[in-house]
Amino acid sequence: MEGRTGEEPAWFNEPCILGIDEAGRGPVLGPMVYGCAFCALSQKARIAGMEFADSKTLTEEKRETLFEALKEDTSIGWAADVIHAKDLSSQMLRSEKKSLNAISHDSAMGLIRGALDKGVNLVEVYVDTVGDPEKYEQRLSEKFPGVRMTVRKKADSLFPIVSAASIVAKVTRDRALRAWVFEERGVEYGRQFGSGYPADPETKTWLAANVDPVFGFPSLVRFSWGTCKPLVAKLCVDVQWENDDEDESESTSARKNRRYESAAPGRHSYFKSRQLQQVTTHL
C-alpha cells in the first residue's frame, strides 16, 4: 500500500474526514487501484476550492498536477491500494471464489482501517459506491461504529474529498501502467494495448496476439475477465486435468479456462502466479 510517510501531523487528532474512490475496475489489463484522501474537518471548505474533480473529467496533465499538489500539501493525507491483475483473477477463480465487489469492499475497508491505525480521528467517511449503496453503507457502519458513513453513486462528483481520492487512484494506476515491466522472461510484448478496456479494438487485438497456447496471458492481463475466455478456448491447447474423469460432461472450453485454478508449492513463479499445476498423462 502506498501513501504519505513520515511523522503523523498534529491534525490527525482533530475530527477528520476521508474519501474513497477507485480506478481501473473495468479494464482487462493492469491493476485496480483504490485511493483515499483525508484531512481535518476544519479543512473541508478549503479542499472544496482546490479544483479536485472526478478524475475522468480531467486531462492527464491536470490530474498529475493536482496529485503532486496533494502530495506536497501537509494538511492532506492519502493512501493507495494497488491490486494487481493476477491477484484479482486468482481471487475470482480460486475454489472459494471472491467477487469483484467483495474485493473492492475489502480494499476500501483496508484503507479506512489503515487511517485509523495511523491515529487519524475519523468522524466522516465518503465512499463512491460499488453495488447497492444502502447495503454497502450499512456494512461499513457496522464495521466501523462511531464513524458516520456516506456511500453514494457518483460520489467523486458530489464530495471534494472523494474527488481528491479519485485523483489519487487514477494517477497511481496510470503511473503503474506506464512503468509496467513484464515479469515473463524470454518473451517480448508490445505496449500498444490501447485503453485496456474489453471493448477497445486495440486491446482485443493485443490480447489475441499475446496469448501463449500453453501458458496463457502475461501477468498484466486479468485472465478471469470474460474477454479472455473465448481467446483461451480458441487459441490455447486443451489441458487434461487429473479430475477431468470426475466430470466428463464438462466442455472443452471450460477445461481450458480451469487451467488457471490450481497450483502447487515450490514451483517456478511463472506457474504459481498463473495457478498452474503439473499433471501426469497416461497414453
UniProtKB/TrEMBL annotation:
Residue ranges annotated for the RNase H type-2 domain, each copy included: 15-237
Cofactor note: Manganese or magnesium. Binds 1 divalent metal ion per monomer in the absence of substrate. May bind a second metal ion after substrate binding.
Domain of life from the UniProt record: Eukaryota
BP GO terms, sorted: DNA replication, removal of RNA primer; mismatch repair
UniProt region (Disordered), positions on chain: 246-267
Binding sites annotated in the UniProt record for a divalent metal cation: 21-22, 128
The reaction(s) this protein catalyses: Endonucleolytic cleavage to 5'-phosphomonoester
EC number: 3.1.26.4
GO molecular function per UniProt: metal ion binding; RNA binding; RNA-DNA hybrid ribonuclease activity
Gene3D superfamilies per record: Ribonuclease H-like superfamily/Ribonuclease H, Ribonuclease hii. Domain 2
Keywords: Endonuclease, Hydrolase, Metal-binding, Nuclease
Top EC category: hydrolase
Cofactor: Mn(2+); Mg(2+)
InterPro entries: RNase_H2_suA, RNase_HII/HIII, RNase_HII/HIII_dom, RNase_HII_hlx-loop-hlx_cap_dom, RNaseH-like_sf, RNaseH_sf
A GO cellular component annotation in the UniProt record: ribonuclease H2 complex
UniProt keyword Transmembrane helix present: no
Family the UniProt entry places it in: Belongs to the RNase HII family. Eukaryotic subfamily.
Function: Endonuclease that specifically degrades the RNA of RNA-DNA hybrids.
PANTHER family: RIBONUCLEASE H2 SUBUNIT A
Name of this chain's protein: Ribonuclease
Organism: Klebsormidium nitens (Green alga)
